[in-house]
């Protein structure tokens, strides 16, 4: 049986927020450490980290009253935080759009004022020739790649790892066949036919 997957950090934050929003109450950390594992399957050891993460994201408020720290969050808090984040992103997008427009205008001005000269033309021709030469050399190198010791070593390592993986799965299949045979008293041929297992399945040498 596969091991049950634990909650991700984001899932823990969502579930912790549900505690606040559903109760609309104020909590101390020790109270959350009792409630979260029982109601939301959040481990007690991770409660403090999750709550602090929500405070850092401005989704949960906290206040020290006397010697105790209280935490709370109402549904409107999350909506306001999302709205604030949206507005911040919108402002950032507008700033980027302004910078892009300024850069495009500068390019247009430079292009309009650019004076064609023989030296520039020759440099462009040389650049394009070098690009073609580079592409030609890359193709030539590819022909000799099969003789590259480093590449061959890499292939050997990959082949070894693949063979180990194949043999590991082959062992798993043999173990499963043995279990089915001994538990349900089914012969090999029937098992192989039922699970589309090749009769000549064997380890790789």
TrEMBL record:
Domain of life, source organism: Eukaryota
Record localization: Nucleus
UniProt KW keywords: Coiled coil, Nucleus
Domain Leucine zipper with capping helix: 152-204
Major site of localization recorded for this protein: nucleus
Any one Gene Ontology molecular-function term assigned to this protein's record: double-stranded DNA binding
InterPro entries: LZ3wCH (IPR040661), Mnd1 (IPR005647), Mnd1_HTH (IPR040453)
A Gene Ontology cellular-component term: nucleus
Residues forming coiled coils: 86-172
Entry annotated with the keyword Coiled coil: yes
One annotated GO biological process: reciprocal meiotic recombination
Stretches assigned to the Mnd1 HTH domain: 16-75
Chain's role: Required for proper homologous chromosome pairing and efficient cross-over and intragenic recombination during meiosis.
Family named by the database record: Belongs to the MND1 family.
The protein's name in its UniProt record: Meiotic nuclear division protein 1 homolog
């Amino acid at each position: 049986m596969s091991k049950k997957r634990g909650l991700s950090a984001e899932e823990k934050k969502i579930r912790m927020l549900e505690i606040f929003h559903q109760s609309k109450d104020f909590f101390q950390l020790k109270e959350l450490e009792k409630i979260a594992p029982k109601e939301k399957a959040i481990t007690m050891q991770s409660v403090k980290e999750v709550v602090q993460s929500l405070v850092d994201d401005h989704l949960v408020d906290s206040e020290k009253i006397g010697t105790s720290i209280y935490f709370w969050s109402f549904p409107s808090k999350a909506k306001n935080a999302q709205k604030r984040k949206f507005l911040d992103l919108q402002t950032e997008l507008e700033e980027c759009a302004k910078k892009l427009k300024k850069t495009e205008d500068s390019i247009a001005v430079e292009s309009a004022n650019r004076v064609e000269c023989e030296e520039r033309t020759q440099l462009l021709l040389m650049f394009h020739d070098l690009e073609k030469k580079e592409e030609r050399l890359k193709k030539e190198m590819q022909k000799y790649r099969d003789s590259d010791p480093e590449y061959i070593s890499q292939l050997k390592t990959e082949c070894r790892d693949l063979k180990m993986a194949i043999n590991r799965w082959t062992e798993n299949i043999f173990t499963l066949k043995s279990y089915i045979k001994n538990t349900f008293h089914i012969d090999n041929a029937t098992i192989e036919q039922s699970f589309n297992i090749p009769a000549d399945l064997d380890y790789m040498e």
